[in-house]
Amino acid sequence: MTEPHVIDRSQHRLLVVNDDPVGRYTTVRLLNAAGFPTLEAASGAEALRAAEQRPSAVVLDIHLPDIDGFELCRRLRAQASTFRLPVIHLTAAYLTDEDKVRGLDAGADAYLTHPVEPAVLVSTIQALVRTREAEEAMRRSEAKFRAVYAQAPIGICLMKAGDGTLLEANPAMLALLAPGVEDGEAVVGRLLTDFVPDEDLAAARAFISMLGSEGARAEFPLRSNAGGVVPVEWTASPPIEPGICMAMASDISQRQLLARQRQELLDRERAARGEAERLSRMKDDLIAVLSHELRTPLNAIMGWTHVLQRHSPPELLVKGLAAIDRNVSIQARMITDILDMSRLNIGKLPLMRERIEAGAVLREAVAVVQHTLDESGHRLALDLRDEATLLLADGGRLQQVIWNLLGNAAKFSPRGSTITLTLRAADGGVCVEVRDEGQGIAPEFLPHVFDRFSQSDAASSRQHGGLGLGLAIVKSLVEAHGGWVDVRSEGRGRGAAIRFWLPGADNAPPDVDTGPGALSVFGALGDTGTGTGDGPAIVLPGLRVLVVDDDVDAGAMLKLILSERGAQVTVVHGADEALLALAGNAFDLLISDIGMPGRDGYDLLRDIRGLEQPGERLPAIALTAFSRDVDRQQALQAGFDAHLAKPLKPPLLMRLVAQITGAAVG
């Protein structure tokens, strides 16, 4: 590695000027041996021409045929291109001190006489070339600095570290200190604090006090000619020489304006977000209240219809009750669809996933709607070839998908036709298809099948009821599981097939809750259906049940339904009454409403759990018109063993009571 004080001689060509061929040859050989390339000249005129090739130095004899070496040196110094060219006089004839003085006065950098030691000549040349390189580098650096200094968009000044006296200012700094003044001398010698508003002098003096350290930063303004102030950010370097620092100043008016605008935008965004969140909460509350208020009367209608149907009514009454039951179920389904669609739109319909067999989910879904399909005169053909395939899915929501697809197929198919449900393993998951023999779908409507509120017939001439949300919910639920759904139809009168694909358990999206939890039980049971059959007989002989509901009709209905199965039922209409009943009696099961005046069902259960002794635990079912998933989760987290949404299907209640209490199933 080359040392810093040693130059690369091969890069520095030297001009040797001597009219004596022998002397010139000797000098050239010496320099070539030392590693320098050379040019040669035998006269002053030749030397001036050779100097145009920009040698790094000149080794110059005094005695020349046309002009002497002193004059040649003066001419080299007179030309801009050779003004800084190092010149070394090397002579055997001009040996006096007076000659040396003449040579140095003429501009020579060194004066050597023969005989000269080769090392002395080489070292002298090397030192002069190295010094000239350093000077040239410094000159270029100074030129670059001056260019930047003059054109920089930020203010730059030199000032004394002690008191902030200004020594020099570039045009940008002059524009900040004295707008409109072009002569930089107008500010030289003045203190920086002369240009600072009185209220900001403390900040300016603190900045000046730090100038002798490793550097300083500050923000304080300068006065403007208009009587205002200009906000300025200041940065100072460590001293560039003793007692003198360089400071830079930037006008930050635009930055502060942008910061204020940004803050205003952030404030408006926060306010808008806060308002949106407030409206979202109001919407959630409205959905909850709407659900409660719509489901509560339906609960009484559906429950009493079921009770009357069990008591062998006359044929006309049987028809009327069946009609009431069907329409209440349709109404409940529409309410559920509206609320589900609303929650899907705002991303608040969580999925409770677990590892389940695809075929088991489909069979449970079919069991719920089979009675309705039978009543409507449709045959259901099942082809569940790969039913053992595992999914990581919300079983309840997948059943809802199947209910909607089968219900949709039945709605648009004639009595006596066949609906086919198939299940196949495909592409690392399962593909489920529901095919019907119904009226089919027109080609122009196919792209809109999964749109919300879409119906293929005009509103004024619709042949089929419903809100047009069922298939939109199907699409949202399937895609939420990481799957896809599509529809095919060969046109009007040719039937339709809707299929969906879901990833298998090993290919399901990773960011899911895989705990089965208590909710999975209700996914299997479901809280929606249109059948009226009771299923296997369930008896509750001697089961002591406490029913808590502020709705008198609902309490009476539940008492009758449970009593018919052999249960001993006590009905109260508030939390305080329930605690009094529990204080004097033993019960095997609590069925409680959630939304009640004063203290709600959560308050009641909290008090009950607080009074229980170690080893005691009263099973509890929440039976409520608050039907959102968040309501279901909240009930389970509060300590209820189960959650059922109104309007109630009595067979579901019986099955759940049997499951929780171990009652006999006949």
From TrEMBL:
The keyword Phosphoprotein applies. Keywords: Kinase, Phosphoprotein, Transferase. GO terms for cellular component: plasma membrane. InterPro entries: CheY-like_superfamily, HATPase_C_sf, HATPase_dom, His_kinase_dom, HisK_dim/P_dom, HisK_dim/P_sf, PAS, PAS-like_dom_sf. It is found in: Cell inner membrane. It catalyses: ATP + protein L-histidine = ADP + protein N-phospho-L-histidine. Residues 289-506 form the Histidine kinase domain. The keyword Phosphoprotein applies. Residues 13-129, 544-661 form the Response regulatory domain. The modification 4-aspartylphosphate is found at residues 61, 593. Its EC number is 2.7.13.3. GO terms for molecular function: phosphorelay sensor kinase activity. Its main location: membrane. It comes from the Bacteria. It is a multi-pass membrane protein. NCBIfam families: sensory_box. This is histidine kinase. It comes from Roseateles chitinivorans.
